[in-house]
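Hey team,

Filing this mostly as a record. A colleague (T.K.) asked me to run one chain through the structure pipeline before their review meeting, and I want the input and output archived in the tracker in case anyone asks later how it was produced. No errors, nothing strange. Just documentation.

Input sequence:
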Amino acid sequence: MRKAEAAHDGRLGSRTAPTGPVLPKRPDLSPHDWDFAPVTDDELAVCRLWEYARESASILRIWEQTSSIASDRTVAKEKRDAIRKEFYGLFNALGRASILFQDGVYGFGGTKHCEGFKSPFPEPWQALTADQRRVLKETAEWEVRDISPEPGFRRAGYPELNALVKLFHPKSLEEVFGGDGRIAVADFDHAGGKLRAICPNLMDADGTETLLVEIEWGEFTNEQLVKDFAQWLKENDPPGISRPDQRGHKLRDLRVGLERLGIMRLLSYFTLREMPLTCPAAWKAFGNREWYKERKRAVQMFHELLPFLPKAEEPASLPTKGGKASRQQKK
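Output structure:
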């Protein structure tokens, strides 16, 4: 499935962080919110995204709004279109995984569509049924390539050409290379990423690049062309584009990311001093960790996983119980 075609600045909503907690209010934090040891290896990646998304007021708002238009057909078309447009911003950033955080815009399932399935967001991942987790995992991980393999290097069509003509605006040689813009032909050909500002190309949010190229079939052998293309790839590796790692996510890294989220949530409900008595299971699990450093790393992970959120938005569980008490005393 290609990224949704919608004009968007790459971030959700306004630059002002939305307010309101994501985690349901309750006297005690559920083990489902901080103890991720029972999560199986094959569910770790989707669980991590799901749980960090639960910390986002923006994503919660999108889920609530799309759910409202799915259940209420009387919503005006203008409002319906505006809600869908905001969801497409999420889709452009997360791809199919964004479907987990909506209702009524896209259906759920992988190769087999799951008719009538509704997203249980923002319930804890571990509180979901095995069937719910299976459908969500299949939805997030399914790709068109599973049933229709598409090569990574292929010809573009007329729609891509039309977009290239309309949207690409080249800079001058002076702007790119400085001075009078003069540069030797050999240096120009190997200027790599700088040429994206000069030579026609467009980069989609998912890392698909459309560009104008020349291939001198009559002057080079296939072996020579392969060698030149390999060199071109080294010189033109796009910055800021996430590339697949053939090793995949290391399972330990995924678990550590969830453990740090659990620690941040615990500190939002308990002070470190009271933790051994009020939540001894958590103290037993994380007592030897550097709690506040781990909390800081959880915040970093939040922004790394969800970089499209408003710049000022922080995880709902970021405020610590100790910090909240201190602010109340000052009042």
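Quick notes for T.K.: Residues 16 and 312 are 6 Å apart (CA to CA). The chain has two domains: 31-145+247-330, 158-235.
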